[in-house]
Amino acid sequence: MATRELREKSGLLEEQARQLRILASTDALTGVYNRRRFLELGEYEHTRELRTRRGLCLLALDIDHFKKVNDTHGHAVGDATLVRFVQACASGLRAMDTLGRTGGEEFAVILPETSLAEACELAERTRVAVADAVMSGHAGPFQITVSIGVARMGPDESFETLMARADSQLYKAKHAGRNRWQAGPDPILRTPCGAPAQG
């Protein structure tokens, strides 16, 4: 009898430990990785990229005018909008991509084994998916847009620097009118990604 009780308690403790690991690594609202876990996974992919040289890109995403959603519809609708936003973003990503919440309405995506041109294509797919998603508010349905910065890791560049370059491109997209993606030149090929897409 005591052995069975010990096994049950051990199983319960293991399940509680598993749940604590999930809580420690995910954003409770959206279910994607939280900033801390996202940065850990980014460092892992960075180390892998230094070894394989297959291409590592990053998307920095920011929901356009999100404060207006909260001000107009309330925080409960704002929270539901964040969840719907994540669903729209995830719909166009590949299984190997990593989506994380890095701030209030700020998110990022790690794109391993990806060229800058492929990252720009994913950014455009994400932009369109978000723009096409319908949100539900007290005053009726509404839509949101996203601005995206795109960057590819340069030779021996840190993950922190890659994130800073993606953020820099994100702010260029914001200043250029929002609902668009922006990418700098490819640090490996020294070529542009193409014309920034906009809605």
Topology overview:
Layout: H1 2-25, H2 35-52, E1 56-63, H3 66-73, H4 75-91, E2 98-101, E3 106-112, H5 116-132, E4 135-137, E5 140-142, E6 146-152, H6 159-175, E7 181-183
Parallel strand pairs: 6-7
Antiparallel strand pairs: 1-3, 1-6, 2-3, 4-5
What does it look like?
- There is one protein chain.
- With 199 residues, the protein is α+β, with helices and mostly antiparallel strands.
- It has one domain (32-183): Alpha-Beta Plaits, CATH 3.30.70.
- 51% of the residues lie in helices and 18% in strands.
- It is built from 6 helices and 7 strands, in the order H-H-E-H-H-E-E-H-E-E-E-H-E.
- It has helices spanning 2-25, 35-52, 66-73, 75-91, 116-132, 159-175, and strands spanning 56-63, 98-101, 106-112, 135-137, 140-142, 146-152, 181-183.
- Helix 6 links the parallel strand 6 (146-152) and strand 7 (181-183).
- The longest helix has 24 residues, at 2-25.
- The radius of gyration is 19 Å and the shape is flat.
- The termini are far apart.
